[in-house]
Amino acid sequence: DRERNYEQAHQTSSLYAVRFSPNNDGSLGIGVYENASGRSVSRQNAGFGNLLSYNNQIFREVGQDSWMGSLPWNSPYFGRYSEPFDENETNLMPNIINSGDRVGDVVMHTREELEAQGFNISNFFQEGEQIFGFSFDRPPGFVGDFIATILQECLNDGISLLGIFSDPSEPEPEPEPEPPLIQLFEDCPISPGQRYALQPSRIEDGVKIIDNPISGAWYDPPPYQDYKIQASNGALITEIVSFPCGLIAQFMYPDTWYTFQKFSVTVEGIRLPGEFNPNESIRFENFQDLLQGRLRIGENGKLGVPEFTIEGVLSSVCFGSSGNGNGVCDLPPPTNPAPIPYLCDNSGEAQSFCVQLSFDRERPGPIRIGPKPVPEPATILGTIAFGGILMKVARSRRRS
After folding, report:
1. CA–CA separation, 191 vs 147, rounded Å?
2. At what angle do helices 180-187 and 377-399 cross, to 10 degrees?
């Protein structure tokens, strides 16, 4: 539920919760619960009270900030649990189930059972000694975007995963005629990860620098049509995991909307063949013959590139006098496009188009993201403000 953060969800008992282990401090039985809330038992287990104290220890040990799976330790989703304790320590982080209504059973699975269903350990940078899983029948109301969080009783470790579920129990209604603008969002729904794209730690000479990156995250660049991404400390970018969905921009013609439905990628002056779609991925090792010396060997023998440039390719959707009645524009795309308004975080404000990246190592070091064209500041602000309104309309439609 992206309308509530982790604390608010506990306070309103609006969580789904799963107890899969019989030997923790919880008082409820094994099972799936709805209308759930939690409580903290970390102090009773000689652990950390919240994520700030946890991250402080991690940083002292390894000199890096921590990640909770798909989210950094100080993500807005964690709210006050990433802040100093208040006077009464009301921001101790809940890490076990306190209450809820039981609605289902839990089934445990071995590593062999998981692998038989397609689980691939090679997707991870390290392998633990004990690998197991659990499953349950999804409750009827468990639909839409979700964040699944697993925490140890001592809060010495944890993970949050982003996902989305459709509702298989409801047949798809006959679609009503939709304006092309809305159809663009529904054809390629915005993933939860895009709304939690990493924001810069600092900005130097117009270049965004992200100091705490992790492989597999979404990265939010400046609001321009094309930009360069650079790794550092010898790290290599091995894959563009996904291009974004939901890109809309309005330009100089009345009733005309230009959407970035295609993307091009260039590596040190060599443009990769073709144009790429939203949700499509690129593994740079698949272009060895073309890239040659620009492709390098990184950690664990993975092939990647130290930098690349990505560009949104314009196409158009028209309304009113600019179109021919079927959503196709009679007018050509502008030669000097404005910045791209796009939602790339969970704040409700429009940003640029983001991109999901994998590296040759789990923690690649600082990432630099810099623009190529430099639009006028007034144009940026006007376009971004209007884009924010559009995105809110599209998001409310998805929830209905």
Report:
1. 12
2. 70
Asked whether the whole model's pTM tops 0.90, one would answer no
Round to whole Å and give the CA distance between 307 and 231. Answer: 6
Q: Is 183 helix (H, G, I), strand (E, B) or coil?
A: helix
Q: Give the three-state DSSP class for 174.
A: coil
- Which among 40, 162, 16 is positioned nearest to 102, based on CA atoms? 16
Q: Categorize the per-residue pLDDT at 291 as very low, low, confident or very high, splitting at 50, 70 and 90.
A: very high
Residue 336 CA: distances (Å) to CA of 224, 315, 317, 318, 376: 11, 14, 17, 18, 12
| Residue 40 confidence (pLDDT) above 70 | yes
> Which residue intervals of the chain are DSSP H helices?
6-11, 51-62, 111-116, 180-187, 192-195, 288-291, 377-399
* Chain Cα centroid distance, residue 278: 14
Calculate the dihedral angle through the C-alpha atoms of 84, 85, 91, 96, rounding to the nearest 10 degrees. 100
88 pLDDT more than 90: no
Residue position matching structure tokens 């940026």: 380
Q: For the CA atoms of 203, 204, 208, 214, what is the dihedral angle to 10 degrees? A: -90
Asked if 5 and 128 touch (Cβ cutoff 8 Å), the reply is no
